[in-house]
Amino acid sequence: MKNKASVVVIGGGVVGCSIAYNLAKKGITDVVLIEKSFLSSGATGRCGAGVRQQWGTKQNCLLARESIRIFENFKDILEINRDIELKQKGYLLLAYSENELKQFKKNIEIQHSLSIPSRLVTPQEAKEIVPGLNIDKLVGGAFCSTDGHANPFQVNIGYAEAAERLGVEINKFTEVKGIRVKNNSIIGVETNKGFIETSKVVDAAGGWSQQIAKWVGVELPIYSERHEILVTEPVKPMLDPMLMSFSFNIYCQQTPEGSFIMGYGPENEPPSYNMNSSWRFLETMAQKATFLLPSLKDIRIIRQWAGLYNMSPDKQPIVSKLNEVEGFYVACGFSGHGFMLAPAIGILMADIITESQLTYDVVLDIERFKRGEVIAEPSVV
Fold first, then answer.
1. Residue range 292-331, pLDDT digits in tens
2. How far apart are the first and last CA of the chain?
3. Strand pairing report for 91-95 and 242-245
């Protein structure tokens, strides 16, 4: 392992690897990435794999649209031969109240300002998109045909391979034990395999980002909470788009291999690092899923797991340098949508670190909370 680097990135998920790749692409090839386990072992490998542009804030829409464009051209942009299993069959969002439908209309106005091809749909149109959908009590919905899902492992590994090709050193099963600071400036990172001298550290540690920041004496305004998810046996194709309901707090997709992957946002889940699975999730998930898609009643579940959402106060990511410590940067608080925004976040963070003009017109710095410039994202499960 190198003992000196221009930048050390902490976290081997898709966000950390995207940042490392984009730094190298901008000419900073002396980058070391530290991952305490294997790549995708955290939130990336445990997520629902959806990629959507149907958000309620302009900057989330913008970052998602740009990320979709990168997903669509992943092989060519990264110059790798890796299939990320991108399936663009759309995202169907379901509304069960007039207020919910009203919010969808507001969101679509924002999305259309960015040329995102979303549209409102009636319950009957929703059933035409998903023939097996139960439309009882359904008021309407929103649909975007270029949304969909991809394989998070393939995307994560693709970024890692491209970064290594450009000179980035990736150290798996390497644990950070501390960060040295002198006169409020970063001077290096302590790991279980030795010390790395550096003046810049990127905290992209997902659910553990707030713990990493404490090593430099900073309390981040974020917390982590458990979200559970399951996968079924593979069955014949019956669901083209990703299906989502904010009223039911559920998302559901069918993979190209035929398995269903589904999860929901828990109610009253306390902040924690708990990643244990529960029988209550299975029971509740089964009730929600079979109401929406009755044909799932006989399908068998083969595995369940849990991961951590890293939540920010406005449910939008924090991509920022920290004024308190020179050379310390954070990419955290993704609130469940780190995978789908990772391609654009990597570009944005590389711009910030190299002090380049920002590629995207967004305000995701941590100081926004002090300035009161907070616009909460309304469309999060």
1. 999 999 999 999 999 999 999 999 999 999 999 999 999 9
2. 40
3. parallel
